[in-house]
Amino acid sequence: MIKLLGNVSAAVAVSFLMTGVVSGKELQPEPSLSSEEMAKAENIYFDRCSGCHGALRKGATGPDITPAKTRKKTLAKLEKILYEGTDGGMPAWGKDGFITRDDAKLLAKFVQIEAPVPPEWDMKKMQESWKVHVPVSERPTKPPKANWQNYFGVVERDVGRIAIIDGDTKETLNVIPSGYATHILRTSASGRYLYAIGRDGRASMMDMWASPPNLVAEVRTGIDARSIDTSKYKGFEDKYAVVGDYWPSHYVILTGDTLEPLKIVGTTGYTHDTNEYRLESRVASIVASHHAPEWVLNLKEMGVVLLVDYSKLDQGTITETMIDAERALHDGGWDSTKRYFLVAANMRDTISVVDTVDRKLVKNIKVGTKPHPGRGANWVDPEFGRVWATVHLGEGLVSIISTDPSKDHAWTVVREWELDGNSLFIKTHDNSKWVYCDNTINLNKDKTLTIFDKTNPTAPPKEIEFDKKVVHIEFNKDGDEAWISLWDKEGEVVVIDDKTLKVKKRIKGLHTPTGKFNVYNTTNDIY
Ligand code: DHE
Description:
Elements: H1 35-48, H2 50-53, H3 67-70, H4 75-84, H5 101-110, H6 123-129, E1 131-132, E2 151-156, E3 161-166, E4 172-177, E5 182-187, E6 193-198, E7 202-207, E8 214-220, E9 224-230, E10 240-247, E11 250-255, E12 261-266, E13 269-270, E14 277-278, E15 283-288, E16 294-299, E17 304-309, E18 319-324, E19 329-334, E20 340-345, E21 350-355, E22 360-366, E23 377-381, E24 385-390, E25 397-402, E26 413-418, E27 426-427, E28 434-438, E29 448-453, E30 462-465, E31 470-475, E32 481-486, E33 491-497, E34 503-510, E35 513-518, H7 519-523
Antiparallel strand pairs: 1-8, 2-3, 2-35, 3-4, 5-6, 6-7, 7-8, 9-10, 10-11, 11-12, 13-14, 15-16, 16-17, 17-18, 19-20, 20-21, 21-22, 23-24, 24-25, 25-26, 27-28, 28-29, 29-30, 31-32, 32-33, 33-34
Helix pairs in contact: 1-5, 4-5
The structure holds heme D (DHE).
């Protein structure tokens, strides 16, 4: 049984435990662990390893580390990898201070033992965990006078809280508990409700009309999750939310105003290319269509993009369209027309493009090493027209892809920008002339924000140096401020004036501020 630690690391859990397994080697003997050691190892594995390698360890973002592979290495070699990391892959968990030498020894043995299968999480458990803190009848009936669409939800990851900050006054309006290692926030179609999903599968919803904004409902949808979105199509505004779980591999449809669990749909199945069965078939990113009553869900292990039509849910029908794309699907976003969805298959160095109108794969585009767009960034390039871009985990590079189907160069990489650091996130806004990139996972450059000029794409980028690690960028509603996080337990959100690129405000007192989500931009998918 996976138990959760009280606190989670600040490291980027992009780990690649095994690089170049030596074939033909004799298997090492299977180690044994006491039940206490197993429990401890399971917790550490959940925190540091499972996001990339999977609970069953068959790999996706990180490689397969089942005992058939790990027992070809000695315990000493595994311990070294776990403690010191590998070049360009596995983080140095020990050296970076997240695990002790003893933890590394324990984990080395753990990964040579068959992976325990985590427990199921069914409707009964979800219903038991479901809490409505403020019934709909007791909520405000009209929005507050404040410019609530310019509120930001800021994830304080390691303390499992969301700070709601007024984007106009920069005041923190409320700090709302949201569970273990909250991952992302999304909004309802009206923007009124802000939804959080934690790594522990807990979904929480907050009402932006309340003064101050407050927690109105929560439910635990599984054991391990990363994504949440809502029904955004006309006629279904604020009606449903959907959570994608890593474990159990399923998605759960919830009522939009109370989070009551309505329907669980399993995603286990067969890889799109080799038709191998995957019990662990994780739901990675989810986006809501604005043009159809549909969600786009990305099944990581299967390499399948699922279009889920929710329009007949109240009659007991869900219609799924399965589109073969590429394995290791992870994060992605809309092009500027919101017809095409671009998603990273990070371990395949690929961006898969799906046409949600013609309901087909447009193309798998080779980009740099391990693309990681977040939701990406859209703008108009002076030479190539409409483009969308991604940064990469594996190299300092921005790949810029033409998204205008009328052009000959559509769906090709039309431009590349060099970054000094391997990056996590990229962001822009229609009203900004800049494209901002962090360099979070390059230890020599992680305190630098890099800023490219859309109007002069061959000009060298500008850089702003900070005193702490920079992560994630989000704009305010008007697109004249870029908000970045200084990622530390004594963290800050720094507001940058987008015209002058000068620091306008430092919002202090935040613990590991990570993703920031502006209500208006999140609702309207502006990035
Ligand atoms: Fe994330 C987005 C999964 C590690 C911060 N992350 C996503 C999405 C997925 C995902 C599937 C897309 C959600 C969507 O759009 O529906 N992330 C994972 C992992 O599996 C991984 C690699 C390992 C893990 O164990 O969690 C992982 N992610 C991280 C981090 O280490 C980060 C930097 C800090 C944290 O929360 O632990 C991190 N991920 C984020 C953020 C987004 C995100 C801020 C949303 C970006 C946006 O602008 O939309």
